[in-house]
Amino acid sequence: MFKELKFVFYLLVIFLFIFLIGKFYFSDQNKKNYYRSISSLDKKINIYSLNLPLLKNDTSNVIEYVENKVSKNKKKYHFWKLLEND
Fold it and tell me: What SS3 state is found at 55?
């Protein structure tokens, strides 16, 4: 008997919790607060972006190209000729 009452109490608490959360989540007051916070964040981002400093570009001529000097006497190998030698 005690187990059944405990089980019913647990179910009642779970359903009440879900009902109250849904009621709050879908309320008009919550939707208004959500949209107000989004619009205030957009305004803050726009104000902050206007005050951002522009940095000078210092990346020009960073890469130095080095010529690789390979001896011209190097033997050239061909794939098919390597197979024929076996």
Answer: coil
Q: For residue 53, what are the CA distances in angstroms to 47, 48, 49?
A: 13, 10, 9
Residue 67: pLDDT band (50, 70, 90) is confident
- Give SS3 for 2: helix
User: Residue 17: what pLDDT?
Assistant: 97
30 contact partners, CB below 8 Å, separation of at least 6? 24
Report the C-alpha gap between 86 and 81 in whole angstroms: 9
Classify residue 1 by its DSSP letter.
-
